[in-house]
Amino acid sequence: MIYPIMSSNYRSNCYLIVDKEVALIDSGNPPTILKKIDRLNIGIDYLISTHCHYDHIAGLFEIREKVDGLMAAHEIDAEAMERGDRDKILSDMFGVHCPKLQVDIKLKDGDSINLGNLDLQVIHTPGHSEGSICLYEPRSKSLFSGDTIFADSIGRTDLPGGSLSDLRRSIERLIRLHHESGIKIIYPGHGPLGNGEDIEKIYKMYLGKPQKV
Ligand SMILES: [Zn+2]
Ligand SMILES: [Zn+2]
């Protein structure tokens, strides 16, 4: 069962995935997350961050006081989180202090986190940040896309570690995934939910013109 916890402003959307084990993807809205797990009477086994930006990881401090899940992030962004890299985490941009975070599981492309029936497959999608990931769940054909792609736009590439050419390649990979395996629902880091068809539409809208070098 996937429970979207939608947020606005500078908070990220978060997704609670409840199976034999429970995963939380991103943590932008801790009060709602804690209320939800209380109501469902569950713990959290995995706290997965799609990338290291403050709006996706800040809630972890509050959540970790109440639950002990294993923290997971791509190895590149995990390094920024463990160092408390103010530049890469964007804590200066958000005007806040972000303490260092220990990451228990350093993810790589091709890894997966099995929750029982549901399986979260890690796709390394650099572009918005160097260690951004998307997670694909094949049974429900869900894509948790972080800030790589939204229902109506692409992720920013002007932040530290961002790269438009990397983002282009990452989104091309998601289009291939949609053609080969099917993506029914996109669960993005911000804004409304989308579907697989949106990926190609957004790509054409933002990246489809021939690039000048
Ligand atoms: Zn971001
Ligand atoms: Zn974000």
Molecular structure report:
With 213 residues, the chain is an alpha/beta fold. The protein has a single domain, classed as Ribonuclease Z/Hydroxyacylglutathione hydrolase-like (Metallo-beta-lactamase, Chain A, 4-Layer Sandwich). 30% of the residues lie in helices and 22% in strands. The chain has 7 helices and 11 strands. The strands form 2 sheets. It has a 6-stranded mixed β-sheet with strand order 1-2-3-4-5-6. A 5-stranded mixed β-sheet has the order 7-8-9-10-11, with no helix packed on it. It is globular and about 45 Å long. The model has no long low-confidence stretch (mean pLDDT 94). Bound molecules: zinc ion (2 copies).
Q: Which keywords apply here?
A:
six-stranded mixed β-sheet, globular, 213 residues, five-stranded mixed β-sheet, binds zinc ion, 7 helices, Metallo-beta-lactamase, Chain A, alpha/beta, 11 strands
How many helices? The count is 7
CATH architecture: 4-Layer Sandwich
Amino- and carboxy-terminal Cα gap: 45 Å
Order of helices and strands: EEEHEHHEHHEEEEEHEH
Shape: globular
Strand content: 15-25%
Category by helix and strand content? alpha/beta
Instruction: Kindly report the oligomeric state of this protein.
Output: single chain
Query: Regions with pLDDT < 50 over 5+ consecutive residues?
Result: none
State the domain count. 1
Q: How many individual β-strands?
A: 11
Helix % is: 25-40%
Biggest sheet character = 6 strands, mixed
The largest beta-sheet arranges its strands as 1-2-3-4-5-6
Bound molecules: zinc ion
Per CATH, the class reads: Alpha Beta
Give me the Rg, rounded.
16 Å
What integer is the average pLDDT? Answer: 94
Kindly report the name of the CATH homologous superfamily.
Ribonuclease Z/Hydroxyacylglutathione hydrolase-like
CATH fold-level assignment: Metallo-beta-lactamase, Chain A
